UniProtKB/TrEMBL annotation:
Belongs to the CapA family. Residues 27-263 form the Capsule synthesis protein CapA domain. It comes from the Bacteria. Keywords: Signal. InterPro entries: Capsule_synth_CapA, CW_Biosynth-Accessory, Metallo-depent_PP-like. This is Bacterial capsule synthesis protein PGA cap. The keyword Transmembrane helix does not apply. Residues 1-19 form the signal peptide. Residues 313-325 have a biased composition (Polar residues).
Amino acid sequence: MIKLAVALALSIATCTAGAESNSPTVSLLFAGDIVLDGQPGKVIEQGHDPFAAFSDIINSADIRVGNLECVIATVGDPEDKNYNFRAHPRTLPILKQHFDAVSIANNHSGDFGRPAFEEMLGLLDQSGIKRFGGGHNLSEAHTPLIIERNGLRIALLGYNEFMPRSFEADEHGAGTAWSEDEQVSADIHKARDVYKADLVIPVMHWGWENEPHSSARQQQLAHLMINAGADLIIGGHPHVTEEIEYYRGKLIVYSVGNFMIDALDNAAQMRGWVMHFTLDRNGVKSWSTSVAHIDDNGIPTPALQEKSPCGTRESTQIDMCTNGK
């Protein structure tokens, strides 16, 4: 009987390991805040590519995603606030070269009002850049973007939690998706049950600017999302990098920092992470970071020799690697 139990346990372990090794993998890249007005927009206007230094890194991934921290439009009036970002539609072909999808759930999507936001929705659709985290109404804003690669169905959800609460989509009006706890949990369940996603990845716009550590609210919401079934959480908005955590074996990147923006206030804002994830049906198999150094014109270059966080599912430990190795 003991021999039979041991043999059965070994058989189960072998089958589990075999199933995991046979699971298809997909590489996903995520870049932080991308603002295509100001100097990056001028570089594009002059016929150049501000993403050029990162082109090989970005385009090595199966799925390339970023946070579009500006509205792309020709209409609208600026809001009464310190920073308003609006890029010209001429920037879209360059963005399309490097990114498959963008989150529009952030505090700058509404900088020029609903007319500009609605124009951007149409322009992104026409250009072939997928979008999530916002839409023409509440239902669309909370609908996951499904990307299928190599037999894996990946659901991307985007949420804004910038205070004061504003520019939300409602039943009849365009805007961004807000991170109500019950709604977020329902969205995660729906992504799996209705949209049949193998993996669910919420992308969050949360926390406080220039804070190097996550807040209690970020941690509470991140844990809630994983308890609801999220496989990976990627955050931004603080404009600086924050810590990375494992919770119940799932990865939480609290803030990746900036990627392309010339509105920089301090040295910490001039350094961000580009995240690399290898995904399979069980979640994040391995991950690493590339450090982006951002110059005064908002243009990033990779710091290939700088150590930055990395890890694997087997260890659930945060290591430090050079260029992902």
